[in-house]
Amino acid sequence: MTIDSLIDSLPPFAKDLKLNYSSLVRNNSELTPQQLWGTVVATAIATRSASLTAAVLEVAATQLSGQALEAAKTAAAIMGMNNIFYRFQHLSSNPRYSAMGARLRMNGLRGHGVEDVDFELWSLAVSAINGCGKCLDAHEKVVREKGATEELVMAVVRVAAVIHGIGAVLDSVAAEAVVDPEIEAAAV
Questions:
Q1: What is the crossing angle of helices 116-130 and 133-145, to 10°?
Q2: What does the alpha-carbon distance between residue 143 and residue 116 come to, in Å, rounded to a whole number?
Q3: How far apart, in whole angstroms, are the C-alpha atoms of residue 96 and residue 16?
Q4: Dist CA 9 CA 7 (whole Å)
Q5: Residue 62 φ/ψ region, left for φ over 0, alpha for ψ in the -120 to 50 degree band, beta for the rest
Q6: Which of 69, 77, 100, 164 has the most CB atoms in a 10 Å sphere around its CB?
Q7: Cα(27)–Cα(105) distance, integer angstroms
Q8: What are phi and psi of 110, to 5 degrees?
Q9: Could you tell me how many helices (H) and strands (E) the chain has, helices first?
Q10: Catalytic positions, please?
Q11: What three-state secondary structure class fits 131?
């Protein structure tokens, strides 16, 4: 299913997500195409919604270079790991954990082949979805040091919020289809 048909198939209760997708993705004026589609790819992967991720990857292949597409996937993968580790350190009341090194490979943070600010924006967007305050602070600081405005940061986070919401709705519709076969038949 294409991303447009997937968005158009969202149920009436997700009307705001449709409208926000239209204004923030289809008609985006705040981000470069690479920033936008890298954010959409990384955050779709972070939603863990298979149907959304498949549809996004299909269109992103026409919007991003191969290297940028791989870098967005790398941001999602590394942040999927780091957000768990650093969120644990941040939330644990035992201060000893914060003093212990991660000892996790993070080579993808370097040599990804795209502009550092774009990769950091994608990492920040995934961290917002995964709720890691430590990673949010670290990546927001880096993008601001690299010249990104607060408005640019908020534009990326808005896209992440909408993509996450769409993923949640798609998963709820899929769950309803399992419970109610009539919904599944109507979706086919």
A1: 160
A2: 8
A3: 44
A4: 5
A5: alpha
A6: 164
A7: 37
A8: -125, 155
A9: 10, 0
A10: 132, 135
A11: coil
What local confidence, expressed as pLDDT, does residue 86 receive? 86
104: which 2 tokens?
A: 């996790």
Instruction: Pick the more confident residue, 40 or 107.
Output: 40
180 pLDDT band (50/70/90 cuts)?
low
pLDDT tens for residues 106-163?
Answer: 777 778 889 999 999 999 999 999 999 999 999 999 999 999 999 999 999 999 999 9
How many alpha carbons lie under 13 Å from residue 56 in its C-beta half-sphere?
27
- What pTM did the predictor assign? 0.89
User: What phi and psi, each to the nearest 5 degrees, are found at residue 135?
Assistant: -70, -40
Cβ pair 132, 89 in contact under 8 A: no
In terms of Cα–Cα distance, which of 155, 129, 173, 164 is closest to 17?
164
User: What is the spatial distance between Cα 168 and Cα 13, in angstroms, rounded to a whole number?
Assistant: 12
